[in-house]
Design brief:
There is one protein chain. The protein has 148 residues and is α+β, with helices and mostly antiparallel strands. The chain has one domain: Aminotransferase class 4, branched-chain amino acid transferase, N-terminal domain (D-amino Acid Aminotransferase, Chain A, domain 1), CATH 3.30.470. Helix content is 22%, strand content 21%. The protein has three helices and seven strands, in the order E-E-H-E-E-H-H-E-E-E. The strands form three sheets. The protein has a three-stranded antiparallel β-sheet. A two-stranded antiparallel sheet has the order 1-2. Strand 3 and strand 4 form a beta hairpin.
Length: 148
């Protein structure tokens, strides 16, 4: 069981209250996540995971830091706090871990379900026939209701 989390640039005890009860990710699932694997304290395919995280944020209009440095620093801080870093700080061999990055739109205190300043638009679907290195773009489509 993890003992630490990184929330908004700070390492916190994993059991400490960390998000607002008004956070849209908590209330509505309005967010994105990416799960990574760290082997011997080093995250596997980090750049690809961060690229996919950014690609996921775009259609939802969720803002991420302009560069990946804060996210990379957060991952390193959590691995170090858990004694899994590959920087010698743990005093023993680095370990393996699953790392989950979760990004939400944040707290929303106004009425309604639409994010502030956003209007409703058609849902998007992505074709599953692309490859990781060359995914097919998403296209806006009209929602259809299928009748039995």
């Amino acid at each position: 069981m993890p003992q630490h989390v990184w929330v908004d640039g700070r390492i916190l005890p994993a059991d400490a209250p960390a998000i607002s009860v008004f956070d849209r990710g908590f209330l509505l699932g309005d967010g994105i996540f990416e799960t990574l694997r760290a082997r011997r304290g080093v995250v596997v395919e980090l750049d690809a995971h961060l690229e996919r995280l950014r690609e996921s944020a775009v259609p939802l209009g969720i803002a991420l830091p302009p560069d990946d440095a804060p996210i990379v620093a957060g991952i390193a801080a959590v691995l170090a706090a858990e004694g899994l870093a590959d920087d010698g700080s743990a005093g023993h061999a680095p370990g393996d871990a699953a790392v989950r990055i979760t990004v939400t739109r944040g707290a929303f205190l106004a009425r309604g379900l639409a994010p502030s300043g956003r209007t409703r638009r058609p849902p998007q679907r992505c074709s599953g026939t692309g490859s990781r290195s060359s995914p097919r773009p998403c296209a806006a489509i009209r929602a259809r209701r299928w009748r039995a």
